[in-house]
Amino acid sequence: MAGAIIENMSTKKLCIVGGILLVFQVIAFLVGGLIAPSPTTAVPYTSVKCIDVRKNHHKTKWLMPWGPNHCEKLKDFDEAVSRQIEANDIVFAVHVPLPSKEMSPWFQFMLFIMQLDIAFKMDNDLKENAEITLDVSLAYRDDMSDDWEEIAHAIEIRKLKCTFGSPKTLESEGRHYDCDFLPFMEIGSVAHKYYLINIRLPVNERKGINVGIGEIKDIRLVGIHQNGGFTKVWFAMKTFLTPSILIIMVWYWRRITLMTRAPVLLEKVIFALGISMTFINIPVEWFSIGFDWTWMLLFGDIRQGIFYAMLLSFWIIFCGEHMMDQSERNRLSGYWKQVGPIAVGSFCLFIFDMCERGVQLKNPFYSIWTTEVGTELAMAFIIVAGICLCLYFLFLCFMVFQVFRNISGKQSSLPAMSKARRLHYEGLIFRFKFLMLITLACAAMTVIFFIVSQVTEGHWKWGDITIQVNSAFFTGIYGMWNLYVFALMFLYAPSHKNYGEDQSNGDLGVSSGEELQLTTTITHADGPTEVYKLARKEAQE
């Protein structure tokens, strides 16, 4: 009777905890869907063609497209030809943001892509595999009366990928090519109010620079930055979740240290998962509002990489520690075959990120995809990481299958036990399956919401209510994994209750104290749990 009462209470508590977590999960989605605006905003910019005939002009002058000190403008290139203005003296100028607006540190980052308007002309056709050379400069200022301060200057090469939908005849002259967008620039902070981009297309026929690129009519940029309203909601979530995970971590580790035994592997891995989650949660982004920290994007990638690597490792070890016949339990070295692909894949993605965003810390115009060598290197890292991920999931699926097969085999021994002890083991098995289903549900929700956010228009409108789907995806999934880690530490904190070997009238001898632990793999102060003893005995037989 005592065992049945305890198990019923334990299951009831599990349901209560699950219900509370579900409520917080719904709140996380609603915060993003109803309170936060769209995560990002895309702003189109059309460059202004300026004239600068002075030698070494870049060192002495920045050309403004509008304002009191705007440059001398060209209407089109026909005017340049009529006025005998050379291509090297034409500068494409873009001011960020648009007139009467200001940029803000709350925007967090700026990403620019470029689109070229190239017209077909019989005597100036776009050759196959053409490359365009860009002489680009970026400057900033915080007051309209200040001088421009240079941030970066680079000479970059981009490959043109264009198609022409009509026959290349005289009748088709003037029609535009359909060209792919080109990566242009990315900076990891928006610390200043105004930015100025000057783009030159230097021509050198002897060296073949910018020859055979067609007749360029205009250069258009699309600037993408994070919305300030979404940033504030995101920072608020991080600020709220950081102490929540920290508190449960301190409580969890205190429960472990109160035991007379050393922590077991699964406990250590859960604690490490909590540390990695806390590493993501700590809202260091608040400092980016006051400091020009361009490395925040790279730092954010590293934090996410550590968490996901730790999460994948936890799933492997979680399954392995529940394979009751496994002799290599409670040792990290026993999982090197499964954890190895995670380490290799994570390292490849880290190197790829350093080759892209690491270089952009010095040169925001750099892109690893703009050269043959860079593209092949990037693809190699991504392919290796993809292979490692496939191997990992094969290992994981195999281990999950083995765990459920072992559990099914052990259930045949349950009828021979007393009622109380049988109920205890059935509860442990039920809760293990419950956590496995929750894990699958979290992974499935992540994939589903990602797909939905990609294929929808970004928001749903129900009457007067507008739901921002993309914002709900970010806040909901972020909150979901925090709740997942919170639940793991809460449910897998070791208990100080022990099941005695002796039973009377089918009752279970239980010392007074705390609630039952969830895991079947945690060893008690006096030795392994009864499930582990049973499993080892069955294996030996």
UniProtKB/TrEMBL annotation:
Boundaries of every Wntless-like transmembrane domain copy: 227-496
Membrane topology designation: Multi-pass membrane protein
Family: Belongs to the wntless family.
GO MF annotations in UniProt: Wnt-protein binding
GO biological process per UniProt: intracellular protein transport; Wnt protein secretion; Wnt signaling pathway
InterPro entries (UniProt xref): WLS-like_TM, WLS_GOLD, Wntless
Pfam family, one: WLS-like_TM
Protein name per UniProt: WLS protein
Ribosomal protein keyword on record: no
Keywords from the named record: Developmental protein, Golgi apparatus, Membrane, Transmembrane, Transmembrane helix, Wnt signaling pathway
Main location: Golgi
Cellular compartments annotated: Golgi apparatus membrane
Provenance organism: Caloenas nicobarica (Nicobar pigeon)
